[in-house]
Batch of 2 targets.
Target 1
Amino acid sequence: MHEMSYVVRFAEKAIQAAEEKNASKVISISLSVGEMTGVLPEYLHRYYPKVTKGTILEGSELKTTMVPVTTECSGCKKTYNPTRENKYLCPYCGDGAGRVIAGREVVLENVEIEVD
């Protein structure tokens, strides 16, 4: 249940950002969630109201966007999304080696606020 720790961490960051901007209300926060993280957005959404209760985030919307795994091929240097169907090989040259360049992160992308 590491989703709870992610919600706590990003709620703290969002509260700090809102306070720095003298927000009167937070409308939403947006997270991007990499497919390789093992973080399940449904649990983020489940814990969000509990974590934000009694804070400036209470009543705000949590928005999540999944980030697909993107790999840069070591052979041809093209980027692709590895899949089970292609045995995680580069679809351009068939190389099996690559460097993951996206899909491992959970990032606070935006805090939408209102200021009086």
Target 2
Amino acid sequence: MCSEFVGHRPPVLPDRNLGMELVRATEAASIRGFKYVGKGDKNAADGAAVDAMRQFLNTVEFNGTIVIGEGEKDNAPMLFNGERVGTGNGPKVDIAVDPIDGTSLTAAGRQNALSVIAVSDAGTMLDASEVFYMDKLVAGPEGIGVVDIRKPIAENIRAIAKAGGKAIEDVVVAVLDRPRHEQLINDIRATGAGTRLLLDGDVAGGIQAARYGSRIDLCVGIGGSPEGIVTTCAVKGLGGIVQGILKPRDETERQRALAAGLKLDHVYEMDEMVASNNTLFVATGVTDGGLVRGVRRKGPVILTHSVVIRGVSGTIRYVEAEHVAERWL
């Protein structure tokens, strides 16, 4: 790694091998969750994925602290905020996990359910767990210095169209399909731009917005604050832009946020959400989606499809794996 850092001592983590080790954990979570695709039981899917991910994480040579966990958000039994994972040896890291981003998608058999792990240097990942929601804007490299979450959506659409050299009618904006976004969706369509309405899983939508050559140009709207941090770890490696504003649901949540030192009515830029470029984002598909394919069973093997995005090198790798089915089922 030393050649990738100039003029100062490099941090110890995360290295290339760590990314591949973490894929084992997301593969395991996806395979276990796959059993419940379309079965209508999101809690069973989530529980199976949590157990599998935790088991594999504890074999990895690192000293990890979960900053964004599954337990506190979804009342799952493991992988809670503050839990220590890994062997305790090797690099110290902050970790964000979502064994299944899109449990409702999994239960319904819909697209874009992922198993996700994001990692950064220890002490660099914002703990925004006191506030459930965050208003987010994500775009690719062409959006840097061009779009801003403080501007009206119509202005941002015109700006991204000009920066990308395309007509407004060709711009596509991803938004979670929620009643709270009714006016936002109307405003997007009023410009002539199109929408990609996400049933769930705005991590995948954000990454698609930041990727070169993607059909999605922007991802906007209010979603989970943990997902904003996870997305930032990925976009660090894609060269794009993420901005976020925390949105407390009530006065109690607002007071908890202030007590935790979080900034309200403030635009969090990428380096405030993840104060390191030395990041890893790893995801394996549970169901098919625009980012990765879902788990498949073909005779004696289970097929998985994963992506690894490394922030420090700006590298995206796809990993296809075959697993002997009888050892999993």
